[in-house]
Amino acid sequence: MIRTRFAPSPTGYLHIGGARTALFNYLFAKRNGGTFILRIEDTDLERSKIEYEKEIINDLKWLRLEWDEGPDVGGSYGPYRQSERSELYTKELNKLIDKGMVYECYCTEEELEIQRKLQLKEKKPPLYDRRCLKLTDKKKQEYISQGRKPSYRFMIPHKFLEYVDLIHGKMNVDTSLISDPIIVKSNGIPTYNFACVVDDYYMGITHVIRGDEHLDNTPRQILIFEALGYNYPHYAHIPMILAPDRTKLSKRHGATSVRELKDMGFVPEAVINYISLLGWSPKENREIFNIREIIERFDFDHILDHPAVYDIEKMKWFNHYYISNILTSEEIIGYLKLLGIDVNVNIMKYKQIVDFEKSRVYLLHEFAEVFNIINTNFTEYDLSDKSVSEFVNILKTIYDDLSAIDLSSVQAVKDGLKLIQQKHGLKTPDLYKPLRLALTNKLEGVELPKLIYLMEKENLLKKVKNFIDFVDKKSRV
């Protein structure tokens, strides 16, 4: 049976790249009737935090990427946090020691850095020179008396390694160019390359799907698998995600974590659809796919072998499409609640706003902005438009007519505004611009008849009068 895993390190929030890795592992498992596992790699004691783990789990659940085994649901291959698997790592380390594949290293960071700089100066590859490989017991005791604690290095067997990457094809590596990696640090904590191998074997992982940045780790891990006498899993390295300017993705390119996207007002369906297309191309003349359709189409043959480009503006388009065409008003209301927006303050008004505005909105917060505009009595107005004085004169002229306008439906409001135009000989922009500025403090936004329909008559008249009074007061100063 296919078994895949997503193994985040809880040292920060879930990055968009991590979310895509989780998604691809989920898709491949579900496409093949397999098992998707969540494993927490929390061996970085200084940076790992339980709050990050909770946020990662919450974000994955928000994306609807439910796992079959993991720290919160259990399973037959647990525990699912590396910090709880130390006995297993010790057992596997001892196997390698007994086989003569591991040796103690007492080198300090300073000594290693001096060696690295010297090799670079001599234009040699910066490889560990195995100076600790054949230390005498006397030398070891000397180091120990200095307060040094040994780390453990895996001795890379020098050969030409061949393996197949399911995306990049046949890979050939000269392992003599790989430095002996530390697999257990001096504090007894296993490093990524060692813990990952042990966990993948004992959890029965059949396919490791991860980002291109791990390509260099793969030969080391395969060699450790072989040294332990275990078969290694299939590897598939998915393309990196770059910013629109083809540089490394960072915060300067906009929201790069799932938490940020959620807070901005994205919906999970849109995020999943968009990130599925970052490096995967189903070769169909369409972009909108629900999760079931993506699962049915997902395979490695359609994963690209070159970097994908992340464009948050494009993702906003996906979000707009889902809000306006796919999600029901009830689902949108539910997402507004998840955002912490108090829709219950006037649930009927919010439902009306969602129904009216879903064809125009790109981010969920825009619904709340409309609600706030309706219920805010402005104390300051933007008077930068040169026609403000003319606007006030028009509003004074039509004020009494507004008090008689019928607010029973949007069509009734449209008809009422049309009658006011005809009575005073006003073109549509001549009436709509002053009203919109008075009601919203903006010159564009919600369709005006819909906005007026959503207001109480008293609120409508009060906003118009406030604007008139504000402009008159400013003109006297």
Beta-strand share of residues: 5-15%
Give the SSE string: EHEHHEHHEEEEHEHEEHHHEHHHHHHHHH
> What is the molecular shape?
elongated
Mean pLDDT: 93
Number of strands: 11
What is the alpha-carbon Rg in Å? 31 Å
Number of helices: 19
Coarse structural class = mainly alpha
End-to-end distance: 80 Å
Helix content: 40-55%
Strand ordering within the main sheet: 3-4-7
Q: Low-confidence parts, pLDDT < 50 over ≥5 residues?
A: none
Question: How would a crystallographer describe the biggest sheet?
Answer: 3 strands, antiparallel
Jot down its keywords.
mainly alpha; 47% helix; 3-stranded antiparallel β-sheet; two-stranded parallel sheet; 477 residues; 19 helices; 11 strands
